[in-house]
Amino acid sequence: MTNRIIDDRRVRAASRTVNSRGRTAEPVPRPRLWDELRGTFAMRRDQVGFLNQMIADYGDIVWIRVLGIRMAMLNHPDYFEHVLVRNHENYDKNTFLFRAIAPILRGGLIGNVGGEPWRHQRRTMQPSFHRPQVAGFAENMTDETSMMLRRWERQYGPSDVVNVSTELGQLAMRIVFRSLFGAKVGARGKVIEDMFFEANQIACAFFRFPLIPLTWPTPSHRRLAEIIRTMDGFVADIIAERVAGGEQHDDLLDAMIYAVDDVTGTGLSEEQLHREVLNLIIGGYETTSNSVSWLMYTVGRHPEVQERLHAEVDSVLGGRVPTFDDVFRLKYTRMIVDETLRLYTPAWQTMRSSIEEDVIGGYRIPPKSDLYLNIYALHRHPEFWPDPEVFDPDRFSPEEVAKRPRHAYIPFGSGPRVCIGKHFALTELTIILAMIAQAYRVVIPDGHREVRPEPLITLHPAGGVHVRMVRR
Ligand code: HEM
After folding, report:
1. 49, 97, 303, 443: which could form a disulfide with 351 (CB 3.0–4.6 Å)?
2. In the UniProt record, does the keyword Cell inner membrane occur (predicted)?
3. pLDDT at position 448, please?
4. How far apart are CA 139 and CA 135, in angstroms?
5. Looking at residue 339, which CATH number applies to its domain?
């Protein structure tokens, strides 16, 4: 008996380790062999379903194996806060996900591993995204949305079924382009816009089957490299024209050309500038484009929510075009945006790698471990979100928000690497939703099927959102 107790203690002592900070910790649970093996195939067929099953079977932290790579999947607000905020210095982006897309992002802000090179870039670019700058971009958002709505009026009748995902994708692209390059970007801008759409499709196809690296010269990967070279050339031409012209421009490109890092006193090299422009287009297009599509879907499916939305935009705006200050008055509109970003969070997964050994929530994380941050599942954690699949903007009333841990909801990430475009995106989504609601009632056509989220780089509405736009 005594021996058994001693043996038990030995077994537990072997699996509990004391980490460098002197804390004892349990090993991260390992799944059964079958669950570990089926990961790669299940991820191809039904990635979200497989991950949800792993959480249901093993809890808020578990090792998973994806495409042969072992990762600890996290699904608790405290764990996210630990990795992204409290001990963020111990985690970088040297992970499979960011290595796979490195040929596109090329050391720009999104996929930069971390450390001093990332800090320099972030310090240099951050001032371009402060509140007064975003306020300036609000006019691009209202102008472009007004133009789209005028076109809709000519083009669509109340019985037409419109693929709003295509329409709103173009709108999101125009807003990013105009904010970066100004209104006078002209015909060249259109060519680059089309190329970017093509590049995005190649990148999405890669994510459906990420076994052939982007560096392998398949015909589509060669085309992607060609598009990136053309886009670099386009940015180089604009920079050369600006430097030669000497005029000031009120756009992001000018802000970044002249931006200086307060700490080092240096700016971005021309090569770095090319990369950052592409990173901003990538970061700012896919995510917002999908979000506005999902907004049409959630609003269309919930007429009672749409009634309250109409009442708010009518009383706050009284028929005029919204300004940046109105965004803070459109409180219910923003609650709809928040709840939509909870259920259909565009950046639905991210990854980190541990530098040194650490303990997360009592579990030992070995050095150089890949962590899989499952934001999609976090936003449905039943402990913090009762009836998680139900769409209910009232979850975002100030009283309800105060009841939840802050890291139960992180559509823009958190900590030092929080999305640089967060305020830009929230302003854009609120303005677009308010302006569409001023003019139209969104109606889901009879017999329209449920739209399934397709988990690619971002969470796409599979097949697009199709609605009828009925003039109010
Ligand atoms: C609904 C819209 C958006 C969502 C949901 C979103 C989400 C995110 C998330 C979750 C991250 C952090 C990823 C991580 O920690 O691994 C991030 C980073 C980033 N986002 Fe966004 N984003 C949105 C819009 C934008 C816009 C409009 C821009 C630019 C105009 C942008 C540019 C970036 C950049 C450059 C980063 C990297 C920041 C860094 O690491 O320092 N995003 N975004």
Report:
1. 97
2. no
3. 83
4. 8
5. 1.10.630.10
> Which pLDDT score is estimated for 186?
66
Amino acid at 73: M
Which residue lies with its CA nearest to atom 26 of ligand 1? 284
Query: Which residue type sits at 287?
Result: T
| CA atoms of 121 and 123, how far apart (whole Å) | 6
The reply to whether 419 sits in an annotated binding site is: yes
Asked if the structure places residue 237 within a domain, the reply is yes
Protein residue with least CA distance to atom 27, ligand 1: 284
pLDDT band (50, 70, 90) for residue 2? very low
> Considering the domain boundaries, does residue 70 fall inside one?
no
- What is the three-class DSSP state of 53? helix
Residues 444-451, mean pLDDT to the nearest whole number: 88
Question: What is the domain range of residue 137?
Answer: 110-344+414-471
Ligand 1 surroundings by CB, under 6 angstroms:
109-110, 122, 279-280, 283-284, 287-288, 291, 346-347, 350, 411-413, 417, 419-421, 424-425
Angle, alpha carbons 432-437-439 (nearest 5°): 105
Q: Domain total for the chain?
A: 1
Ligand 1 pocket test: which of 129, 419, 424, 433 has the largest number of ligand atoms within 8 Å of its C-beta? 419
Q: How much of the chain, in percent, has pLDDT values that exceed 90?
A: 65
Cα of 459 vs centre of ligand 1, distance in Å, is 14
CA dihedral (164, 166, 168, 170) in degrees, to 10, reads: -160
Instruction: Determine, yes or no, domain membership for 406.
Output: no
Report yes or no on 309 lying in a domain. Answer: yes
pLDDT in tens, 314-344: 999 999 999 999 999 999 999 999 999 999 9
Q: Which atom of ligand 1 is nearest to the CA of 346?
A: 5
C-alpha of residue 407 to centroid of ligand 1, in Å:
16
Hey, what are 35's tokens?
A: 């669950």
Query: What's the mean pLDDT in 268-285?
Result: 89
